[in-house]
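Consider the subject:
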Amino acid sequence: MNGVIVHRTENFPTKEIHHDARSIRDLKNAKSLTSIRFLDSPTSLQNVAAQICRELSKEQDGFPSHDELLSNLITTNEYPHFKNAVKNFNHDPELTIGYAEHIGLQRRRVFIYKVPTLDQQIFEYFVVVYTPFKQKYTKTAEETAKTFASLFVSETLRRRFNEAKNEEEGFMILENEETIYSSGSEIFEERHSNGPWYPGKGIISDLRLRLHYYKSDFTDAFSDRRSVEKCLSTTIFLLFTILPTSIAYGMLNEENTGSVVNVSKVILGQWIGGLFFGIFGGQQLLIMTTSAPLSIYIHVLFNIAHLNHWDFWQLFACVGIWCQIFLFFYAIFEASAIMRHMKRSTEELFSLFISTTFVYKGIRAMYDVYKNNVNCLENGQQGCDTASVLIFIGSVLLCWRLATAFSNFRNKTILTDSFRETISDYALPISVLFAALVTQILFFDVHQTTFHSSTTSDAHWIEFWKLPLKGHLVAIGLSFPLSILFFVDQLLVTNTVDNKQNSLKKGSSHNWDFLVVAVLNVALSVFGIPWMHAGLPQSFLHFKALADVGKDATQREVIQKVRETRIPVLSAHLLMIPFYFFLPKIAHLMPISLFYGLFLFMAISSLTGHEFFERICLFFTEQAHYPRRDYITKVDQRTIHKFTFCQLLQLGVLLIVGMAPVNYVRMTFPLVIFMFIPIRMFILPMFFSQRDLELVDGAH
């Protein structure tokens, strides 16, 4: 039989059900709207559809007929399938959702069928939505199907359905989901209500949202076996990610301040700040850390204190306190509202700048070691060691290459799926330990550079009020640009992690996080410990480590599920406490070459799915091999390249300012980032149409 079959399948992003009133109402009315059936033996889609249509026709007293409903729902060819279906971006072979409309139906109906597969260990789910013709938009078959598709994309819900023994337990699961989503919706509506504004309103609404999810921030880590495995591997991953960067920034501070600020101070601040924010912070996926711009600020303060014969720690404490006072006012008056004007391009510029600096650190370290050895040989000095240079460069590249290979192991086809996942989850510690063993065992007689750990007291009370009046005035002046640095970095890092593309469910809390960061840094300031704020790429890598990542039809990585829990970040920082106390005894066992290998890995791995970097690669990609992206098919190629070129110019400005040899120039870095917002709002629209800008640089 010859003919044409019309088959329509739509991909769509997961619905934010707690923001959708109709979806919540459908869950509330689940018993009247939905029929749940648990079958005992495997069957086909055609049999399920036939059974559903018989039941629906019987409810309607035989009109429309079973055959009429069935022909409206599925194709009649050799391999039947739904005429209309919805799928999440992450194609799931165990979930099939079809929908149809019929003029003869009196009300909407949803059918959920749980069907065992041949091995009886895995279940398939068939969901069918049937509605009357010409319904209100929010009640159409398509929109209702999207609601239930978004529900069933949750692994937790599917696991509970798998464990349910009968239909009644299935309804209890849906009722529980309605309770969770509706309570979250009430808080969301209050946060976005048009009621009277007052100072601190944003902080209060953020706190209410966090308290609503606070218990689940801990229990989600133990919701299923995979979550426990992920949290354990993420804990180890964070330990191997955060510690090397803390040590590197500590070494930088030692160099800048003559060891007044040292490695042990930075590590002390790291575990104190990490635990404090892990307990009280709003967005639990953020990692608090010191940063290169903060190290530059400390260097400038050290020089100013030295020139004016002031006590460095007194100036440090005063600048820190005043900076956090400004940050407190940003929280009170909801300065984070500026985020609505900050487009994805600004976040991409910032994250690519951070990745570029990490790559630069790794390459520069190898070059410096090589150059120092060349100078040593040319000057005829004693103690030149070419072998140590080769081992240093080899260790950096070995650590980076192993970490990259192991992290991509889940995409291979050898061994079992669970084994590949385990190797990928523990890629970083495996690579570091393997590279360390190779260098220590095979090249034990070659000198390797390690870092120095001070045994002096770290935390001490600072009598900041004894700073001269002129010093207090200087501190106020220096604290304002520092507060802009905190403000911009905190917002950009938060939005890089918490955006719609990343499928987080618990919402953000910018204002509350500003308050927590301010309180934390006041304490760090008065005890002489380096400041900290949310950092990249650690926060983004933390998010990815807790996520299940799949690929869509275009082979692009997509986030399937994220475990939004505090357990890994708290566990990792608790493990740092013994490391801090034993640091003087084990420092000589840690070659710094491995740190730079980790920097390369963190920088390059954070570029996966980075749209700006992807568009840069288009300059060197044959058109026939362009990735299948929405903006590529809808925007002219020249326009895409022109926009990317504009971003490259902005990135160049960031690199010039951020890596300038003069520290006072580097201090303007946050102001430069801030200026990109009005440039995007007012200048770029002069050269690009609004449609093209939305497609290339719209919302996540």
